[in-house]
Design brief:
321 residues, alpha/beta, nine-stranded mixed sheet, 9 strands
């Protein structure tokens, strides 16, 4: 009798496991291939012509790339671009830079605004340029960041949100932290708002938004990363080698992409740093608290599940050396 009970339990366990695997496959998003036009850009240096990106290279040829994902950001992007470009222009003797705006299939003229504002700011000045790529299909924030990172030429690559919520000058804080922890050309440093919890910057948010954020961070701590307190801040700095290693291995393209990216870095033993930055709430957020919150929770399970069963693999930078 006991034999049959154990056999039935094993059968139920097997069915449950197969069911979980099936759900994992269902909720794992499919990758979206790039179209030929998405490998073209327009630059403030020559706004009348579309240029093809050269093949990705492991060797950077400028000092810094700033990747800005933008979806329907014609209202918020100009102020962010102005702050970023004017700061970069003020850094004399720091090498060439580029701001790479990735227009994620916007419908409000984001690309045209980016080029217009970029041209006004650069206006023939030496030191850098603004480049704009337009994606033909909306990829999500993570997909836009990944596309920009794969075309970045900088020795260091900064991802920054288009809303201008992070003070751009704090890039130097991330830069100094990276100088301290970089190892064999690898490091990732994230800007952090963790020190702002309980301050006006977060208190003025709705109670439901703060409650859901706390629940998300509790789930995050349970399922994935323990070394970084603020995974979602849109202000992250990568060395060229780390960007070239991590982003091709990234699978998720939604709001949760930061978590997969940092988890990859942690599992690959890439040096990680976190630096407090100045940040303020900016109206116009694209995050829909209810639906996106559920999607992010599901994606956390998708991330852990796929790496746990070996369906997704962790790249090794040790083999590069």
């Amino acid at each position: 009798m006991l034999y049959y009970v154990l056999l039935a339990l094993l059968g139920l366990l097997l069915l449950a496991s197969l069911g979980l695997l099936g759900l994992l496959y269902i909720f794992t998003p499919a990758s979206v291939p790039s179209s030929p036009s998405e490998h073209l850009y327009i630059s403030t240096a020559d706004p009348s012509t579309q240029h093809a990106f050269p093949p990705p290279s492991d060797m950077p040829d400028i000092a810094l790339t700033v990747v800005v994902p933008a979806f329907n950001e014609r209202e918020r992007l100009p102020a962010m671009l102005k702050e970023a470009v004017e700061f970069l222009q003020s850094r004399k003797g720091q090498g060439q830079w580029e701001v790479l705006v990735v227009d994620d299939c916007s419908r409000d003229g984001t690309r045209e605004v980016a080029l217009e504002v970029g041209a006004e700011l650069v206006n023939g000045k030496k030191g850098g340029e603004v480049r704009v790529i337009r994606l033909e299909r909306n990829r999500g924030k993570g997909g836009a960041v990944k596309h920009g990172m794969l075309h970045a030429r900088g020795e260091r690559v900064l991802f920054v949100d288009a809303d201008g919520a992070s003070r751009f000058a704090d890039f130097e804080l991330l830069e100094r932290a990276m100088d301290r922890i970089e190892k064999e050309g690898h490091a990732v440093v994230v800007g952090s708002r963790a020190h702002l919890v309980g301050t006006e910057a977060t208190v003025k948010r709705s109670w439901i938004r703060n409650l859901l954020m706390r629940a998300f961070h509790l789930l995050l701590l349970t399922l994935s990363i323990s070394t970084i307190r603020d995974t979602q801040c849109g202000f992250k700095l990568f060395t060229h080698r780390s960007a070239r290693l991590l982003f091709p291995a990234m699978h998720l393209s939604g709001w949760i992409f930061d978590v997969e990216l940092l988890l990859l870095a942690e599992m690959a033993s890439i040096p990680l740093g976190e630096v407090a930055i100045q940040w303020h709430e900016v109206d116009g957020s694209k995050v829909r608290v209810g639906r996106d919150g559920i999607r992010m929770a599901l994606d956390l399970l998708v991330i852990r599940g796929n790496y746990l069963i070996g369906r997704w693999t962790v790249p090794s930078w040790k083999k590069e050396s």
